[in-house]
Design brief:
Layout (H helix, E strand, L loop, with lengths): L1 H7 L2 H11 L3 H14 L6 E3 H5 L2 H5 L3 H7 L7 E3 H8 L5 H4 L12 H12 L6 E2 L1 H12 L5 H15 L7 E2 H7 L5 H4 L7
Antiparallel strand pairs: 1-2, 3-4
């Protein structure tokens, strides 16, 4: 399995992905095998449909938001390198920072926070509005909580985070709220190592 995957990836590609993402050679070849098994069209790209066949994403209430994070604006396919760049956000911090400064590492605290923020910032205007927060909360809890309760949660969240009085949460306000949260732990997938 690993030898087949590494024979399809050029050694220089593996080295570039290692430098860019912090994944090891064996992780890259293992993830390339997974990528290849998901690539039902065998064209070197994954579509949204390919991702939707992943059971863990299919049952995740934020599955569509996570899937969207793999695709650049206007793209409907992602290649292996783009796949790895997105997965690097979930690599435990101590692993991915050896080749990049903490600010540049795809799995740094700042990068993880930016990635999480983007899951809420549906219109990509660099602010999380009450409506965006409500939409994400609805995705997460479904019909288990009334709209009135969700509205109350959204209002309270924005009230606590909003420091500049614009009734939205900016990235810096998002960072401030999560200052004491172990983001690295919560946004790391241990099986990636």
């Amino acid at each position: 399995m690993g030898s087949r995957a590494s024979s399809l990836l050029r050694e220089e590609e593996i080295e570039e992905i290692k430098r860019e993402t912090g994944f090891s050679h064996s992780q890259i070849t293992r993830l390339y095998s997974r990528f290849s098994s998901l690539d039902k069209g065998e064209n070197g790209h994954l579509s949204r449909d390919d991702f939707q066949r992943i059971p863990e994403l299919a049952i995740n209430p934020l599955g569509d938001r996570i899937i969207n994070a793999f695709f650049a604006e206007g793209d409907d396919q992602v290649n292996f390198r783009g796949f790895m760049r997105t997965l690097a956000h979930f690599l435990p911090v101590e692993e991915g920072t050896q080749n990049a400064s903490p600010r540049e590492a795809l799995n740094s605290r700042d990068s993880k926070l930016r990635f999480a923020f983007s899951l809420y910032d549906l219109d990509k205007d660099d602010k999380i509005s009450r409506e965006e927060l409500l939409q994400v909360l609805r995705m997460m809890v479904g019909v288990n909580i009334s709209d009135e309760q969700l509205g109350s949660i959204a209002d309270r969240t924005i009230q606590e985070a909003d420091q500049d009085g614009d009734h939205a949460i900016s990235f810096s306000e998002f960072q401030k709220v999560l200052e004491k949260v172990d983001v690295e732990q919560k946004m790391s997938i241990r099986f990636l190592h």
